[in-house]
């Protein structure tokens, strides 16, 4: 290659390099609203199939009427609609009987043992195996499906029934999977109401499997970054919530909302 050609090639390379150096720096495009929206949606639960939220109806004479408290009645009827799911049941017996004069008479210990045994025999006959008894004789605890418990529920020895979640591979009580609007239909997921931006009105925030909540006011930030104030120490089980502790400043006694 001649000296003239090499010189021309070198000059061309220099010109191209200068042109590239003068180009504006490339930056990432700012996130569009569509991209932001997808990011927000990614923290929302997908929800459960509506068939998981169905419930049964109470008819006259049904054993489920022994689930006295409204919340337990809702649970008993929903458990009845899902015969394949195991729950934790507490069957409670009367400790007294009423004589002809209308007086209450305590059952003897032998009578209490016999009454409890009749209930346990029926549970075992219907397929229940995980049955727990205590030193007191007025109740038994059983982890079983509704069909395995309903016969014992109907016995005259049983006066009251309570039901709660059990560890089950079907994850029926996994409240994290519920969308907020599904919470009301799930009898085993307690609704959590709060104040978004720490202002009224009281709004449904989500739900939780927790049975007991403290009565202290608390705060949490939702998946979108909004601060909420709650009237209890429970927070929604739905993903993305960030608990922030007490809503009351312990020094001043004033609410910490809004602003953290």
Explain the overall architecture.
The protein is built from 5 helices and 11 strands, in the order H-H-H-E-E-E-H-E-E-H-E-E-E-E-E-E. A hairpin with a 5-residue loop joins strand 9 and strand 10. Helix 4 packs antiparallel against helix 5. The longest helix is centred in the first third of the chain and has 19 residues.
Order of helices and strands: HHHEEEHEEHEEEEEE
Principal-axes shape call: elongated
Helical content band: 10-25%
Give the strand line-up of the largest sheet.
Answer: 8-7-10-9-11
Quick structural overview:
The protein has 260 residues and is of the alpha+beta class. Helices cover 25% and strands 22% of the residues.
List keywords for this structure.
single chain, 260 residues, alpha+beta, five-stranded antiparallel sheet, four-stranded antiparallel sheet, 11 strands, 22% strand, disordered N terminus
């Amino acid at each position: 290659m001649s000296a003239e050609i090499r010189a021309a090639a070198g000059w061309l390379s220099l010109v191209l390099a200068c042109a590239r150096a003068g180009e504006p720096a490339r930056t990432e495009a700012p996130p569009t609203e569509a991209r932001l929206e997808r990011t927000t949606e990614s923290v929302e639960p997908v929800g459960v199939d509506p068939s998981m939220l169905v419930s049964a109806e109470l008819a006259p004479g049904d054993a489920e009427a022994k689930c006295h408290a409204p919340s337990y009645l809702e649970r008993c009827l929903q458990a009845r609609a899902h015969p394949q799911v195991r729950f934790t049941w507490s069957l409670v017996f009367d400790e007294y009987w009423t004589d002809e004069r209308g007086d209450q008479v305590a059952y003897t210990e032998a009578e209490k043992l016999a009454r409890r045994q009749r209930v346990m025999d029926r549970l075992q006959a219907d397929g229940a195996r995980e049955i727990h008894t205590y030193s007191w004789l007025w109740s038994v605890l059983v982890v079983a499906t509704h069909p395995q418990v309903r016969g014992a529920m109907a016995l005259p020895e049983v006066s009251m029934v309570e039901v709660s979640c059990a560890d089950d591979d079907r994850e029926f009580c996994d409240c994290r999977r519920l969308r907020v609007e599904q919470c009301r239909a799930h009898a085993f997921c307690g609704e959590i109401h709060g104040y978004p931006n720490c202002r009224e009105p009281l709004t449904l925030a989500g739900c939780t499997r927790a049975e007991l909540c403290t009565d202290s006011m608390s705060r949490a930030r939702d998946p979108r970054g909004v601060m909420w104030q709650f009237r209890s120490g429970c927070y929604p089980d739905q993903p993305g919530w960030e608990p922030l502790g007490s809503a009351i400043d312990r020094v001043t006694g004033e609410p910490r909302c809004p602003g953290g």
